[in-house]
Design brief:
- The structure is a single chain.
- About 10% of the residues lie in helices and about 50% in strands.
- It is mostly beta strands.
- A hairpin with a 5-residue loop joins strand 6 and strand 7.
- The termini are far apart.
Length: about 180
């Protein structure tokens, strides 16, 4: 079987309306993919940064998959929450990115969004911190129903991922060699 190793970290986030953020994440892979080792989901700590423009998590990711197909390549899904002074978590955004398909080290930026409800929903959000949520989280990474939503763009989540592939060549899949950064002195 072909193997995919992904390790790295959810580095942090920026561009959100306020700081004090945490992030729930999950790595999703479709049929034909088997998680051999690692956690496929988790949650970061709440960061209360000195610089309110950038949240730092440095939360580790380390997974090992086996597969017999290229379809349904793994993706990382996010839910970003803001924690207020009363300890309530307010949804600040959803997002997802595919794990890069080329071996090597990658810096990945994930743009997030959140649903916009009616005028009454915005009043609830302003006074009570109750933002609209998705009932079905599959909508985050499935484009078929997402186009019907009214959304607003939120901030970005940053990942540093290292991708290692093994035995894909035995299944007729060739990857481009990893990019090597030039070091000049």
């Amino acid at each position: 079987m072909a193997e995919l190793f992904v390790n790295g970290s959810i580095v942090g986030a920026s561009g959100f309306p306020s700081s004090e953020l945490c992030c729930k994440w999950s790595i999703l892979a479709g049929e034909g993919w088997t998680l051999v080792e690692g956690d496929s989901h988790g949650q970061t700590h709440v960061d209360i940064p000195h610089d309110p423009k950038y949240t730092v998590w440095n939360h580790p990711i380390d997974v090992h998959f086996t597969t017999n197909t290229m379809q349904n390549w793994p993706k990382v899904q996010f839910q970003v929450f803001h924690q207020d002074m009363f300890g309530r978590n307010e949804l600040y955004g959803y997002g997802f990115v595919h794990v890069p398909m080329s071996p090597g080290s990658h810096r990945v930026d994930c743009v997030t969004w959140r649903p916009v409800g009616s005028f009454m929903d915005s009043m609830w959000s302003f006074f009570l911190g109750a933002t609209p949520h998705l009932r079905n989280l599959d909508i985050i990474h499935t484009p078929t129903d997402r186009f019907r939503l009214s959304t607003e763009t939120m901030g970005k989540v940053y990942l540093d991922l290292n991708v290692i592939v093994r035995n894909f060549d035995k299944h007729g899949v060739a990857f481009l060699p990893p990019k090597v950064a030039k070091v000049t002195s």
